[in-house]
Write a structure and sequence with these properties.
mainly alpha; Formate dehydrogenase/DMSO reductase fold
Length: about 325
């Protein structure tokens, strides 16, 4: 490996490497896509439209389970003893942040699959009519759809925030021991979930870039982005005003070399500024095309992906 690259990816104070950042990203995408899809579902129900026909909802059904299971798999493999992961399910340790994360993830995955069975009850009844037992089970699950929906939303919020709490388990790192971090990761997770559902609805389910659902998700994205910017400013101002090692952590993160470049170029410019510049300066004939909308989604996802890596690595560079 190039020595300069090795220096920013492997340093003396580093505890958790890049697989954790990917897990944080995937868990956030899953949680965010669920929250966005539930909002779209409510929107379609209000307008008397079939929920199962929505490209956004279909995209969530593809993204949410795959991303969270893949992320959990990466987390398990990265453990010192991955084959002993099951012990966390048997031997409870309520004082461990990792334990609560595993519990939330486990319940979240179960409720997610049950909720998807309720959402796509009508299409799945093709199997229900062929196999009566399956039909009875699907009808039973459908009856709990309303309650499951809000349980799933609460679990998605918990999962999104947990990705920030997980990093706070690394004691002695001022940038990571920040109360704003769980909220920042939750909000950026919603942002990535919105971008991912739009992207996959366009690519996999041929949703029109002008559809009501995508327009509705865009109305969610705008306040979410403003909130994310506000939280980022609050995050770093809190470190600066705290002084000492906290202020030094902020300085290293924002005015260092490699990781500060990642923040300003990928997180801020590519993930936040560039999409808005393109959206407002290019002609409507271009911005309304599916390819353009997909490109904006990729920029947004790049920004969130970079944010996870930036926080993880820059956060481990300064010790209190």
């Amino acid at each position: 490996m190039n020595p300069s690259i090795n220096a920013v990816l492997n340093f003396d104070t580093m505890v958790w490497p890049w697989p954790i950042a990917i897990y944080l990203f995937l868990a956030g995408v899953s949680a965010g896509s669920v929250m966005v899809a539930v909002a779209v579902k409510r929107y379609r129900e209000f307008h008397g439209q079939a929920v199962a026909d929505s490209g956004i909802v279909k995209a969530m059904a593809l993204i949410a389970p795959i991303s969270v299971i893949l992320g959990l798999g990466i987390l398990i493999v990265d453990l010192t003893k991955p084959l002993e992961f099951w012990k966390m399910m048997i031997f409870w340790n309520p004082t461990s942040v990792m334990f609560w994360g595993v519990m939330v993830l486990s319940v979240y995955i179960v409720v997610l699959f049950l909720y998807m069975a309720a959402l796509f009850h009508q299409p799945l009844m093709v199997f229900g009519r062929r196999f009566p037992v399956v039909g009875k089970l699907l009808n039973l699950i459908k009856g709990f759809e309303g309650g499951m929906q809000w349980v799933l939303v609460l679990l998605a919020v918990a999962l999104g925030a947990y990705t920030g709490f997980l990093l706070s388990a690394l004691k002695g790192f001022p940038l990571l021991n920040n109360p704003v971090l769980p909220v920042l990761f939750l909000v950026s997770g919603i942002s990535s979930g919105a971008a991912a559902t739009i992207l996959f609805s366009l690519l996999c389910f041929k949703e029109s870039a002008h559809s009501q659902d995508i327009h509705f998700v865009h109305t969610i994205e705008k306040p979410v982005l403003m909130t994310e910017i506000f939280l980022l400013i609050t995050f770093f101002l809190g470190l600066v005003f705290a002084g000492g090692a906290s202020a030094e952590a902020a300085r290293v993160a924002l005015m260092g070399e490699f990781w500060s470049t990642v923040f300003w170029v990928l997180v801020v410019f590519c993930g936040m500024v560039l999409p808005w510049i393109l959206q407002w300066t290019l002609p409507k004939t271009l911005t309304g095309r599916s390819g353009f909308v997909a490109a904006l989604c990729l920029l947004s996802l790049t920004g969130v992906f970079a944010l996870r890596h930036f926080i993880l690595y820059a956060g481990q560079m300064t010790v209190a």
